[in-house]
Amino acid sequence: MTLYGDKLPPADDRPTVQVTAVTWPATDSGPSPAATGPDPVGPGPDPASSRNGRRRRTVLLAAGMATVLLAAGAGAGGYAYAGEVPRGTTVLGAELGGKSRADAAQALRTELDRRAATLTAPVPVRVGDRTAEINPADVGLTVDVDATVAAAVEAQAAPLSRLFGTRTVEPVVTVDAARLETSLEAAVGPQGRKMTMPKISYSGTTPKKVHPKPALTVDGQTSAEALRKGWLTGEPVTVPLVEKHPATTAEEVDRLVTELAAPAVAAPVKLTTEKGSVTIPPSAIARSLSFPADKAGKLTPKLDVKKLRAALGDKLDAIEVEPKDAAMTLAGGRPKAVPSKSGQRLDDAALTRDLLAVLPKSDGRTIDGVLKPVDADLTTEEVGKLGIKEKVSSFTTHFTGGLSSPRSKNIVQIAKDVDGTVVKPGETFSLNGHTGERSYKQGYHDAPVIMNGKLVPGVGGGTSQFTTTLFNGIYYAGLEDVEHKPHSYWFSRYPAVIESTIFYPDLDFKFRNNTPYGVMIDTSYTSSSVTVAIWGTKIYDSVKTEYSPRRNITKPKLIRLEPGPSCIATNGIDGFTQDAFRIIRKDGKVVKREKFTWTYQAEPRFVCGP
């Protein structure tokens, strides 16, 4: 043992000995047992040194407790925030807490699969005092898994609540509101009421109005919200009946009549151009001005330029020049182009805009028309590149009565209207579209037509014979038949089955140029026949027809009619069914075999008188 005599050990050594001797818990209530009694080596400790030691012990003890608490908090936080979904979170009873988004989505899908029978079962719905069932699949009713998991992730809570608490997140339910509304409309029944749409129209030049009335029905969005909330409760879902009002109110209808519909037809409008002027009468304005309502019931003024042109008739001929398409003619037995001509027409967009702007006015009802150049749809240069170089097919039908009979005149007139027409590759030709309505103004006459199963006088009788001739022309050229209808009765002047009638505007004849070349329709006539030749470029060796035997023969009945100018007697014709096969050959092989079938009625024997 080392002795220091009268000297004490250095003061800095003492705290080390004291810290080693401390036992937990320590207090500052009095001196420690080691400090009592005299020091065998020297005097007792310095009082200041004892106080410093006690302070050091307190600081160290506090630091140790804080460290323990921080460690515990860190562990609890790590537990509470493990995964992306907060712990204790459930959806439809499925535990999603502590899972990643992907694992939570899989857990939710597993729960939905377990509940599949319930989730796909019809949902009872009350609509007013009626009940119905909605099939979830029909209206897109389902649980959106991804959106539900996202909602669960965002369901934040305080850390201790996340550690010890639980929370239930409602599933995100989706439904197609439009499909739901359609499904529920039938359930509304007589307790509902249809919407009365607002309306403004003209009787002559007098505006007529209809005030709107709301509908009593279901609303898609309201019904969808009710279904989303009530679907998974297991109880019937109540869907309210609501009033739906048109977008245009009764007051707005009155205002439109007062400010536009009535003044629009109060006086004519003068249209001036560099080539002259035209007066647009109130009657033409009334025929072309309308106020259509959209699905929401909103009225919007609209001017239909096509109807305005039709109402003005030939008045615009004084200021407009219609373009003329290039055509073809035969010169020395060879096709030759007839040049196209450009034209001048009013700018329809400017006409619509300016006329609508001036119609509400009581004076100053004058607008300036803008004439624009208009090119032909088919130019001379284009027609020269179409490959129209040779006759592809030709067909002739015969008629009686000479060229002086009304029926013969009609045949000649429509043949002239169509002569030289060029149909471009891929284009569809419409006979009604080409000639328009065949009337007295266009040069047609009254002649017998078939109406309600019997022959009666009618304008344009005989044009069906030309239609049959044209049909056979394109048929033997191998062109595509788009629309045709054979006669109700068979007439010996036409080939059976492969013939066609026409009646404006209900019955049309159309064909499509399904070749890579242009085709020209060439027509000619004699005092007893009409011929249609199709010119273009041949692509087939031959086109022929094979017939089946006639079957289902029926005999005509005797029918007596009141005598008079509208009664046309007939001898009667047998009815039958027959097939015609179009056989198309190319390079010595059959490349197409098309079947045409028609059943003719037996034409009665009509007798005028008893």
Account of the protein in words:
It is a single chain. This protein is an alpha+beta fold. Among the domains are: 65 residues, no CATH class; 127 residues, Ubiquitin-like (UB roll) (Roll), CATH 3.10.20; 223 residues, no CATH class. Helix content is 29%, strand content 27%. Strands 22-30-29-23 form a four-stranded antiparallel beta sheet. Strands 31, 32, 34 and 35 form a four-stranded antiparallel beta sheet that branches. A hairpin with a 2-residue loop joins strand 3 and strand 4. The N terminus is likely disordered.
- End-to-end distance: 165 Å
Strand content: 25-35%
Average pLDDT rating:
86
- What is the strand tally? 36
Uncertain residue segments: 1-44, 59-63, 66-77
Order of strands, main sheet, comes to 22-30-29-23
What's the quick description here?
With 610 residues, this protein is α+β, with helices and mostly antiparallel strands.
Write the layout of secondary structure elements.
Layout lengths: L13 H8 L25 H34 L8 E3 L2 E2 L5 H14 L1 H4 L3 E5 L2 E5 L7 E2 L1 H9 L5 H6 L2 E2 L4 E2 L2 H12 L10 E5 L2 E5 L4 E3 L2 H11 L6 E3 L2 E3 L5 H15 L4 E5 L2 E5 L1 H7 E2 L11 E2 L1 H8 L14 E5 L2 E5 L4 E4 L1 H11 L7 E3 L2 E4 L5 H4 L6 E9 L7 H13 L2 E3 L4 E3 H5 L10 E6 L2 E6 L3 H14 L3 E4 L26 E3 L6 E7 L3 E8 L5 E6 L3 E4 L3 E4 L13 E12 L2 E12 L4 E4 L2
Parallel strand pairs: 1-6, 3-11, 13-20, 33-36
Antiparallel strand pairs: 1-2, 3-4, 5-7, 8-9, 10-12, 13-14, 15-16, 17-18, 19-21, 22-30, 23-29, 24-28, 25-26, 27-28, 29-30, 31-34, 32-34, 34-35
Helix pairs in contact: 3-5, 7-8, 10-11, 14-16
